[in-house]
Specification:
Layout (H helix, E strand, L loop, with lengths): L3 H28 L3 H20 L2 H6 L21 H23 L4 H25 L4
């Protein structure tokens, strides 16, 4: 049996990554009209769902313990977004960081899943580069 702590880590980071991908997908779709990038974010979200099933979806959800989560409050930086670009960039960072955690934790459980997370992480890097080049977000 896998350590419940690992499942809590997976749960938090699956949720964080999927939520961030949804924000990226919607911003790409509705704010920037980027059909290809939007589709790629959607595919990444679906890949995360598939990976969650591979890593034992039921155990992951059962390990969730929101009442004991010591970091569930918002940080001040989350309230300082100035525009839709800031929202997109913050969520890209959130996704990359979360997928990295998923990759690392899955190495303890399923090395094949870790490889899929790694590929997904590099796909997110690629999508970020496309958006940054096209819209010059970082100045």
């Amino acid at each position: 049996m896998t350590d419940r702590r690992l499942y809590r880590l997976l749960d938090a980071n699956f949720n964080r990554a999927k939520e961030g991908l949804r924000v990226c997908e919607d911003v790409s779709r509705f704010a920037f009209n980027q059909r290809v990038v939007t589709r790629a974010f959607k595919e990444a979200r679906h890949e995360l769902t598939d990976l969650m099933k591979v890593l034992n979806w039921k155990e992951i959800i059962e390990a969730r313990d929101i009442k004991k989560d010591i970091g569930k409050t918002s940080t001040a930086s989350e309230m300082k977004r100035k525009n839709v670009e800031d929202i997109l960039l913050a969520n890209l960072q959130r996704v990359k960081e979360s997928v990295r955690v998923l990759e690392e934790i899955s190495k303890l459980m399923r090395k094949d899943a870790a490889e899929r997370f790694k590929r997904l992480r590099y796909q997110i890097y690629y999508l970020e580069a496309i958006l940054v080049r096209k819209f010059s977000f970082y100045k």
